[in-house]
């Protein structure tokens, strides 16, 4: 399956096994812009898979209400760039519902899926990575998968987690990430990073589609610097994130490079760098390197200069090793 098909399979499994589950969003009934929900309305009916008006605030508010009434509420925001009108509902209602009521009611059944990150031709309004905005909101969980297997397993966990969760799906991977995905029902743990490649000299951390740039950079650095080995970690969940796995790695290697597509200033890399500096200060051999998108609106024709590509990551790893 590709990642789009894996997500579709997760939604189908949920609708099959959970009679309270509903899937909704703009154009979802005919499959959505990226076809992630194709066939579901025909199979489960228009009362469980349906279109909404073009109002992200309304989609989020409706989803919160459904979740509060006991439904498994799965909303799609068509592009992450347009999630901002829903920010108040997600940050001030979904995240706080449980706490304002003393746990008498909650919106834990809400899961929001949204395509994010660059795709090569999206420009200002179809390329953004706004995950750090939501990672700053206590009460929400934030997930970013890197592949088809991860997308299905993490989405199943997000749907069943008793907290409202936002899943940012790197849309460039919808059809480019293809794997042998189990057709069975399975879940992958939230808030648990995965060490994709063990190493001894530098810890390289990322999530989502950025993992592939990191893999390429590591291959180049290990080719050009014989004897060097890099440890690669996929965070998978960035709220709450697995600081312990990263800290254990950095205490071993003494160096860290973190990369993401979102702008550098106030990006999630800043949080992780601060946390690891506090935990690992006496073991650090060089300053923590951040390789991120530029702090400007995502460009169209100049996208390749904006992106934290493998070459930029390679240079950061090299600086860290040579410090």
Question: How is this structure best described in words?
Answer:
By secondary structure, this protein is of the alpha/beta class. It contains 12 helices and 12 strands. The protein has helices at 3-17, 40-44, 56-68, 87-94, 97-100, 131-135, 148-160, 210-224, 243-253, 268-280, 303-306, 310-322; strands at residues 21-25, 49-51, 72-76, 110-116, 141-143, 165-170, 194-197, 202-206, 230-234, 237-239, 256-263, 289-293. The strands form 2 sheets. It has a 7-stranded mixed β-sheet with strand order 2-1-3-4-6-5-10, sandwiched between helices. A 5-stranded mixed β-sheet has the order 7-9-8-11-12, with helices on both faces. Strand 1, helix 2 and strand 2 form a beta-alpha-beta unit. Helix 1 (3-17) packs parallel to helix 7 (148-160) and helix 8 crosses helix 12 (310-322). It is globular and about 60 Å long. It starts with a helix and ends with a helix. The model has no long low-confidence stretch (mean pLDDT 97).
Give the strand tally.
12
Mean model confidence by pLDDT: 97
Give the N-to-C terminal Cα separation: 43 Å
Structural class: alpha/beta
Assembly annotation: single chain
Largest sheet: 7 strands, mixed
- Low-confidence runs of at least 5 consecutive residues: none
The radius of gyration over CA amounts to 20 Å
Give the strand line-up of the largest sheet. Answer: 2-1-3-4-6-5-10
Gross morphology = globular
Give the helix tally.
12
Order of helices and strands: HEHEHEHHEHEHEEEHEEHEHEHH
Q: How much helicity do the residues have?
A: 25-40%
Indicate the proportion of strand residues: 15-25%
